[in-house]
Amino acid sequence: MAIASLLNELRNYLTDTFALVDQWFDQPAALREYRPADLGWTTNEVLAHIGLTNHYLLILIQKGTTKALANTQGRDLAAELATYQFPREKLAAIGVLHAFDWVRPAHMEPHHNQLPLPAIRQQLRDQLVQALGYLNQLTNGEGLLYQTTMSVNNIGKLNVYEYCYFLAQRARRHLTQMQENTDEFSAAVA
Fold it and tell me: DinB-like domain location, by residue (predicted)?
């Protein structure tokens, strides 16, 4: 496995995803505050949820980074890299809205006393820097050396690189959700 190529792909995917999310903060307030007919989340609530969930995922990524770096002792990183295949197929459904039922913990749902929108935007920008920083610590493939179980959609164990991809895929899922809100809003005001 060419780790430099994977890291470049992950950096670009994270950067592109966060840039797409960031654009939603510039949408008109009426659109961002629109509650869809199914009583789902407003775009503002989706943005808050992305930041909140990223917070918890980045805790796992940070711990995984620390443990992966510690695991370099006594492990044959070259052998790990030689046989590793990045599981795009396994993680594809994470980025697709309505692909499966997603049961999220209550502490990851947006709430009435959430951060103000400018603070959420800054939080997301900081989270991108944080995620890229973890990748920058794992430039030789060390991210393969520690796995954490992910229960969502019965994915199983993910290494640190896969967790970073999962984080971006999850945000992509919410991009679709916000676009659905926009489409419904546009039809309602037409």
Answer: 28-178
Measure the CA–CA gap between 160 and 145, rounded to whole angstroms.
8
What are the residues whose beta carbons fall under 8 Å from the beta carbon of 132, sequence distance 6 or more?
11, 14, 15
Q: What is the rounded CA–CA span in Å between residue 20 and residue 9?
A: 16
Strands (E), the chain: 147-150, 156-159
- Ordered DSSP codes for 108-133: GS--TTPPPHHHHHHHHHHHHHHHHH
| Angle of helix 3-23 versus helix 160-189 axis, rounded to 10 | 30
What are 94-141's pLDDT values in tens digits? 998 888 776 766 767 777 678 899 999 999 999 999 999 999 999 999
Q: Phi and psi (nearest 5°) for 101?
A: -70, 130
Max Cα-Cα span within the chain: 64
Q: In terms of pTM, does the model score above 0.90?
A: yes
